[in-house]
Design goal:
200 residues, alpha+beta, Alpha-Beta Plaits, 4 strands, binds guanosine-5'-diphosphate
Amino acid sequence: MASDRIQRTLAMVKPDAIERSPEIEKIIQEEGFTVVDRRRVRLTRAEAEEFYSEHRTKPFYPSLVDYMTSGEVLALILAGEDAISHWRRVLGPTQVSRARQEAPESLRARFGDPTNDSRNAAHGSDSQTSAHREVKFFFPDLTLEPVLTGEGAKEYLSNAVSPTLVRALTELCKVRPEDPIVWLADWLLVNNPNKPPVDK
Ligand code: GDP
């Protein structure tokens, strides 16, 4: 059944796990998320302070900021059904030692450092409000339209996608290429009605 709970969330691979980001991105893929955009960046002190400003008064804030600026992070916009809670579930509890006990398969249990409560491998927005703020924080220039669902999605697909796709698939059946996916991708590049034609 189509869901009206398609959400976007901000995922971040933190400095301690950046070397293992290919493994983490594989998990993201296996969990069925769509990666809308990604960006690898080294946060400045001011940026890390702003990102974690809600923890400004906590004793661990200075060391958290030190840690978050100690190396590059990978920020990803993930989309999917209930993406915010789904990604938080994949992450597991904030504390790695707790994650290892309560959710040993979770990402923080597998990739985090149980001896340091800041070094828990990855981040995920905890609400729609923070997802909105955090996506904007890392991708300020990105314009994201509201996610279409239900009738709106059907109408968009039948107006904007189906006419071209039907032509493409009809042609594909005639040609029967050896690698239909690559052929289809090439055909769509050449015949995209929204772009000037490209040379093959
Ligand atoms: P999250 O939403 O699960 O990331 O948890 P919080 O918003 O409570 O904390 C933000 C981040 O601060 C965590 O992911 C940890 O990296 C770090 N952190 C939280 N609690 C502690 C703590 O008690 N000590 C230290 N050193 N770091 C912490």
